[in-house]
Amino acid sequence: MSPKSFRWLLTAALLVIMALGAWGAYSSARPPAFGDAQVGGGGPTGAADGAGQPDLKDKTGPGSAAEMAGKSQPGSLAGSEEPAVGNTQVTDPGEIGLKKEQKAGLRGGDAQATQETGKYNQADADKPPGAIPKQAVTLLVTRDFGQEVLVEVEQEYRPGETALSLLQAHAAVETTYGGNFVEAINGLKSTSGGPGGRQDWFYFINGVAAGVGSGAYRLQPGDFVWWDYHAWQVSGITPAVVGCYPCPFSRGYGDKGGRALVLAAPGAEKEAAVLKESWSGLGIKVEVEKVSEKLLAGRRLPTLALGTWDALKDIEFLSGLNERRVRSGLYGHFESGKLTLLDVAGKSRRVYAAGAAIQATGQGLGDAAPLWLVIGTDGDWLKKAVAVLREEPRKLQRCYGLALTPEGTLRLPLVSGQD
């Protein structure tokens, strides 16, 4: 064999070895998708990923996360050939699945980073959620849609800390797949079945369901991190919640926030002006516009739409969200001038001839422009809902949604004991 041929064969062999080595490293690091045979063959099918979000393509059927991911309807995540964000975060932990404007604030973090407990103060029970010092971060851990508090801590901000490292500093955390999947917090583990159905850990940043693994979300001063453990076999993933208020308006997902768009239905202009004045006092720059299909679908800021249902029901975008109910993350349903409250399985439990609901939704995970809906059966109930935002924000604490009824305020979704 000539020297030239030998060098060629040696080079080719080295390239093959390098390629096999790279594939092996990728395969060992990549957590399998929940729909893969690898999981069914021995992995925990109920585990949540580093973002606390089960795979969007894991199940099918009405109200499922798969349906939420596969339809490009108003208020739902448009279909994509890409795998769910939570199953790909190790490839590029800070940027996969993010919108262009979000990437600057999200850079990859090491899920296994060494932790320092540091100093922290127990959260003040009288302090409304989201109202924290600019140089602090808040951690809230609950179960059953915020019904039971497991951990509540306000801590000094530490540069470089991630949502996962913050959690590990204040709770016992069990992970799988190389530390990229949060399986248990303080002994409460993900389950794939049983009496309670499928239950997992989900996490929100400033009221928005995170779009990356918790080890990849680098915290910023003022961030509010909320982990919640609950069943989700029917409802799928809730894109946004109201329980971190005044976030996401005072501070958004992946950015400093402080800007908001208020869309007023005819007859709700006064309430919009009142809300603008209130938020301006919190340092939020507020734009007020007349509600429209175009502005709802093309929003670029955290947005709040308000009005009576009669004034909003003919807007296709909103009527579509209302009809999809829990598949949009909404547990308050308006129909025929009445307000119907739903349980965690999406079943109607209470019906009121008069009332209001404060709810939030968004376009899948990591939506930097979530949509809040403040809707009343009539003008008086709309005013009461706006008054909660202005004068009684504590009522929103740890809520996925909130209903105002003649019997008082009720947390949404309804859980055992409420229905």
Task: Summarize, please.
The protein has 9 helices and 19 strands. The protein is of the alpha+beta class. The protein has 2 domains: 47-231, Ferric Hydroxamate Uptake Protein, Chain A, domain 1; 259-412, 2-Layer Sandwich (Chitobiase, domain 2).
Written description of the protein model:
It is a single chain. This protein is an alpha+beta fold and 419 residues long. The protein folds into two domains: 47-231, Ferric Hydroxamate Uptake Protein, Chain A, domain 1, CATH 2.170.130.30; 259-412, Chitobiase, domain 2 (2-Layer Sandwich). The chain has nine helices and 19 strands. The chain has helices at 3-29, 37-40, 65-70, 163-170, 269-280, 293-297, 309-312, 316-324, 379-391, and strands at residues 120-122, 136-143, 148-156, 173-176, 181-185, 188-189, 199-205, 208-209, 224-231, 259-264, 285-290, 303-308, 332-335, 338-342, 348-352, 356-361, 371-376, 401-405, 408-412. The protein has a seven-stranded mixed beta sheet with strand order 11-10-12-17-16-18-19. Helix 5 (269-280) runs parallel beside helix 9 (379-391).
CATH architecture annotation name of the largest domain: Beta Complex
- With helices defined by DSSP (H or I, 4 residues minimum), what is the helix count? 9
Tell me the fraction of residues in β-strands, as a range. Answer: 15-25%
Q: Which sheet architecture does the biggest sheet show? A: 7 strands, mixed
Total strand count, please?
19
Which outline best applies? globular
CATH class assignment of the largest domain: Mainly Beta
Strand/helix succession: HHHEEEHEEEEEEEHEHEHHEEEEEHEE
The CATH topology of the largest domain is Ferric Hydroxamate Uptake Protein, Chain A, domain 1
